[in-house]
Design goal:
This protein is mainly α and 70 residues long. Helices cover 66% and strands 0% of the residues. The chain has three helices and no strands. α1 packs across α3 and α2 packs across α3. The radius of gyration is 12 Å and the shape is globular.
């Protein structure tokens, strides 16, 4: 069993965030819902940044990346 690299851990975290985003009902996956989603993750899920604002930005970046490259 090999130790995962930092990039692999980040990719796993990004996948988990996107999976949770897509698990929400379609009516709760609008642009206006991303901040609430990020706040929910901050409270109970994986934290992607050292501050809540940085965390929000990174969550939005993950969602944006998947939507654009889909």
């Amino acid at each position: 069993m090999t130790k995962k690299t930092k990039a692999e851990l980040a990719r796993h975290q990004h996948d988990a965030v996107y999976t949770q985003w897509m698990g929400r009902p379609a009516e709760r996956r609008r642009r206006s819902d991303t901040e609430d989603f990020a706040d929910d993750l901050w409270a109970q899920g994986p934290r992607m940044g050292s501050s809540q604002e940085l965390h929000r930005q990174k969550v939005m970046d993950v969602i944006r990346c998947w939507v654009v490259t889909g």
